[in-house]
Amino acid sequence: MLDQIRETDRKYYMNTFGERLPVCFTEGNGMTMTATDGKVYYDFMAGIAVNVLGHNHPKLTETICNQAKKLIHTSSLYYIESQANLAKMLCENSCCDRAFFANSGAEANEGALKLARKYFYNKGQKKPEVITLENSFHGRTLATVSATGQEKYQKPYAPLVEKFIHVPANDIEAFKKAVTEKTGAVMLEVIQGESGVRPLQKAYLQEIRKICTEKDIVLIFDEVQTGMGRCGTLFAYETVGVEPDIFTLAKALAGGIPIGAILCKEQFAAFTPGDHGTTFGGNPLATSAGICVVNELLGGVLNNAKEMGTYFMNELNLLKEKFPLIREVRGKGLMIGVEFAQPIAKALSKQLFEAGFLVGTVGETVFRLVPPLIITKNEIDLLTAKLTELLTAY
Ligand SMILES: Cc1ncc(COP(=O)(O)O)c(C=O)c1O
């Protein structure tokens, strides 16, 4: 069966993913997924930080099925009860006052950049420059690729959208040098995910907040990966005590149903009718799923993420003491990076895959672990035991 799927894919699908792992999953349950050959895998990637409630979560599945039987889509020409209610829940549980829904992280970030431009347009000011960080990742649309501070994603698409200035992360002097009277926005991830789970320092973020407030620069946090409980708090900005003016969400917000969101404080809610729009964004299916996810997070899953994040990090640090091959364990909550002292990440992840564990790699030296937030000690212990066994043989 897998061979047939691979053959069809090879023939008809545009390959942007390179050589995929030789597996196709047919169902999931909690922390595990089952492949076409019946083999069961522990999922420490959660669809890249998406399936926060794991697979086939009873309440989420029921919500989606019930909503699909009633209404999937109506367009935003009409009021949508779940759209209004999810916006309310997100605003009531964050530092923001307004929400707008999109369909993906890139689209939410694109909207956030447009919102910052519109804020200055409304004020009759021209502040087109946007500062972002080296090694950041903000998406694959032309503007978000331009915002992304990694040349490999940009090269084939020149000319890029202008006025994005990239500075090194955690270097406040470089940041200050990049600020001009034309700087309108700063966009950054509280923890850089795609480039290997690299947290920004609290003092650095606090200083950026201060400068943005002083100079009327819109501070945008891209919480597409860090948001929705991933870092042990509902949003990662809470872990550093720095509030953005605008932040974006996607990935985990509806537990796997495509959705994105732009959240902002009232004074930055610069869109007026006709300025922005979307066909699918905020439809009844996605926003009902989003409400279910927020309810589950607030109802206990968030606490579990915090507790299990601490436990996981401790267990990995114990491994680090035992194996000098582990150079660093970093991250927050259940967004964890493990850096190895030698380029063994790919080979080790392959061995884990063969043993039935799905982990992510960044380059040759880093593991990225972003499991479902419903994870238990048992699954963490299974992974660390297997890692101990494998590392002992290196
Ligand atoms: C921080 C961050 N921003 C934006 C994106 C893009 O999200 P999407 O793939 O939903 O467009 C990602 C995806 O990995 C991300 O990690």
Kindly list the characteristics that best describe this protein.
single chain; 394 residues; alpha/beta; Aspartate Aminotransferase, domain 1; Aspartate Aminotransferase, domain 2; 2 domains; seven-stranded mixed β-sheet; four-stranded mixed β-sheet; 13 helices; 17 strands; globular; binds pyridoxal-5'-phosphate
Describe the structure.
- The protein is of the alpha/beta class.
- The chain has 2 domains: 2-56 and 300-392, Alpha-Beta Complex (Aspartate Aminotransferase, domain 1); 59-297, 3-Layer(aba) Sandwich (Aspartate Aminotransferase, domain 2).
- It is built from 13 helices and 17 strands.
- The strands form 4 sheets. The protein has a 7-stranded mixed beta sheet, sandwiched between helices. The chain has a 4-stranded mixed beta sheet with strand order 1-2-3-15. The protein has a 4-stranded antiparallel beta sheet with strand order 13-14-17-16, covered by helices on one side.
- The protein starts with a helix and ends with a helix.
Summarize the structure.
This protein is of the alpha/beta class and 394 residues long.
Spans of at least 5 consecutive residues whose pLDDT stays below 50 are none
Helix/strand/pairing class, anyone?
Answer: alpha/beta
Q: Which kinds of small molecule does this entry bind, naming each only once?
A: pyridoxal-5'-phosphate
Q: Give the biggest beta sheet.
A: 7 strands, mixed
How many strand segments? 17
CATH-assigned fold name of the largest domain: Aspartate Aminotransferase, domain 2
Backbone CA Rg: 21 Å
What is the topology, as strand order, of the major beta sheet? 4-12-11-10-7-5-6
The CATH C-level name of the largest domain is Alpha Beta
Write out the CATH superfamily name of the largest domain: Type I PLP-dependent aspartate aminotransferase-like (Major domain)
Mean pLDDT: 97
Distance between the termini: 35 Å
How does CATH name the architecture of the largest domain?
A: 3-Layer(aba) Sandwich
Number of domain modules? 2
Morphology: globular
Tally of contiguous helical segments? 13
Strand content: 15-25%
What is the helix fraction of residues, given as a range? 40-55%
- List SSEs in N-to-C order: HEEEHHHEHEHHEHEEEHEHEEHEEHEEEH
